[in-house]
Amino acid sequence: VCLSLSVCLLSVFEIKVSFYVGKAIVGVRDKKMVSIRRATVHDLLAMQNANLLCLPENYGLKYYLYHILSWPQLSYVALDHKNRIVGYVLAKIDEESNEVPHGHITSLAVVRTYRKLGLATKLMQASAEAMVEVFDAVYASLHVRVSNRAALALYKHTLQFRVTMTEAGYYADGEDAYAMRRELTDEREAFLKKREALLNPSDETAAKGKQSDE
């Protein structure tokens, strides 16, 4: 009886372990099944919810709507395997200055359980490319709290932004912000090449033919 009971308990334990391991494996696989697409007005509530979960800087729904209606090409969302929004980037073109055309990242957020997957980079890259292709932007800018070391590391080391100045009391609670920017040189060069290929498809075909002959 004791032997049978031990076998039964061991079997239950193995089932439980298998269940949790299987669940963990599915979770990892599901996290990889994330897609990026342009944001629409139908995404605004979910974007706002992600913002409330992730960031201390929160905005009213009208502010999101203002971005989507004014610059519909620049904001993007990340969707999980169940089509739920797990990240977003809210962006615009700075039209208040007399400088060269440039974009501004108003807000970037990724739900905690979906971080470390490169989603922030993909969202930012999609927005940067749209800034160049649609508005001929020369650079992108953003602000980050001086105390937010994780975000600062992401912007500096992964996304290659640089600090241009410190703006005292930028945030509502009085905290200072680093103003940062990144030149969109790579995106502009890639766009020019793509446009050239579209305008002169015969040149590209000839180049491919020459390579195949060689």
Give the neighbour order of strands across the main sheet. Answer: 1-2-3-4-5-7-6
What fraction, in percent, of the residue positions are helical?
A: 40-55%
Shape: globular
Strand content: 15-25%
Please write the string of helix (H) and strand (E) elements: HEHHEEEHEHEEHH
Low-confidence stretches: 1-26
Instruction: Please outline the major beta sheet.
Output: 7 strands, mixed
> Given the structure, what is the number of helices?
7
Helical/strand content category? alpha+beta
Give the end-to-end Cα distance, rounded to a whole number of Å.
79 Å
Query: Average pLDDT value?
Result: 83
Computed over alpha carbons, the radius of gyration is 23 Å
* Overall strand count: 7
Summarize this entry quickly:
The chain has 214 residues and is α+β, with helices and mostly antiparallel strands. The protein has helices at 2-32, 44-54, 61-70, 119-135, 149-158, 185-199, 201-213, and strands spanning 35-38, 76-79, 85-93, 102-110, 139-145, 162-167, 177-183. It is built from 7 helices and 7 strands, in the order H-E-H-H-E-E-E-H-E-H-E-E-H-H.
Structural account:
It is a single chain. The chain is an alpha+beta fold and 214 residues long. The chain has helices spanning 2-32, 44-54, 61-70, 119-135, 149-158, 185-199, 201-213, and strands at residues 35-38, 76-79, 85-93, 102-110, 139-145, 162-167, 177-183. It has a seven-stranded mixed β-sheet with strand order 1-2-3-4-5-7-6, with helices on both faces. Helix 4 (119-135) links the parallel strand 4 (102-110) and strand 5 (139-145). Helix 6 packs across helix 7. It is globular, with a radius of gyration of 23 Å.
